[in-house]
Design brief:
With 232 residues, this protein is α/β, with parallel strands linked by helices. It contains seven helices and ten strands.
Length: 232
Amino acid sequence: MKILAIETSTETASVALLDGERISERSVAGRPGHSETLLPEILGLLADAGARLADLDAIAFGAGPGAFTGLRLACGVVQGLAMGAGKPVIPVGTLEALASQCADESGAIFVAVDARMSEVYFAAYERRDGQLVERMAPACAAPGEVRLPAEGAWFGFGSAFKAYGDTLVPAVGERLTGFDASPVPLASSVARLAAVRLARGETIDAALAAPLYVRDKVAMTTAERLARGGKA
């Protein structure tokens, strides 16, 4: 099984190639969006592995939520590569990919990442029999409006705890057992989750690939920015 994966939902982008049990990964340098360096890194990754696009079983990408420019770039690149090579596509939720990187022993993971514009993308997952089960679908809210699922204790995971910790931690309450604000989503995590979906036959045609947006409004008025503590 060979899967190429792309993750560009944040400024820390990466590409990965899963080949059976082996996985290789490269970071993608450049400005947010990574448009100048993404394709060269993909081609370099394949060349180092002695692989071609024709050898792939599928192409996966971190579908979001995340930075709009990065999500559109990943989707567009994946569509172009997959259509050209006649390969299926596997979208993987960015928050799910991030949750899969959490090593907290409780298995109850509350992912919260900085959505910019003084907002947070968040979702909740539980590990059951080695698989992630979604307990709260991805959503977007101001840090003070974020809430945990109705029951249980949860471990926080993601950049929002660094960006908005003073507001976010009190908002979610005492059922937060702790948090790690350092992780970023990785293409290798997208690839591993995509492998499970591929084994179950959960692929889509490249033409149907689309980013996952959970925030429709991408610009605020001056009054709205000031209300959330931003600058005019």
